[in-house]
Amino acid sequence: MQSFGDIAKALNRSAIQLSGLQKRFQLPSFEGAAYSPAYLAFLRGIVHLRTFDISEESLRDLWQLEKKLLQLLHVDSTGSRTWFLDSCGATTHPTRRLLLTNYDLGVAVPSRELQLGLNFASKTPELFAGTEMGEDALRALNKYIPEHNRILAALAAELPHARAATQWASALIKPHKQK
Question: Fewer CB in 10 Å around end: N or C, the chain?
Fold first, then answer.
């Protein structure tokens, strides 16, 4: 566990910048050294994607789709205050994971199928089933896939520029390090 200051230092961002991200992504805040490695991994992912010029608006839209999908899969019923972040930092099965929450869907993303019915806790039953109200996990996944693919395409397009910029910056810094 780490403090908010530790996270700011690890990401080379000001506390004000990170606090803004917390608010805009509706993330919980904690006192003291109560931030999990998954919390840091999520923020690191956001910072990395922003470095590749992926708009924050696109990321927030994808974030909302992922959280909705996880709610439909009942991941929110685990009792964790950070249920939507708890998979961040996991490294197994990368092709099966959502982009921001890093949740393992059990099938490759993009996919047109899901492992449904993963209810981790009993809740008060709704008056109508989720599918009758138009909230269907497969429907949410089908909204998610184009956004996911669009962001991955933008990353692929930006990657050569980021590599060139890194080489260019390294060449600028190298003579100054030798002094």
Answer: C
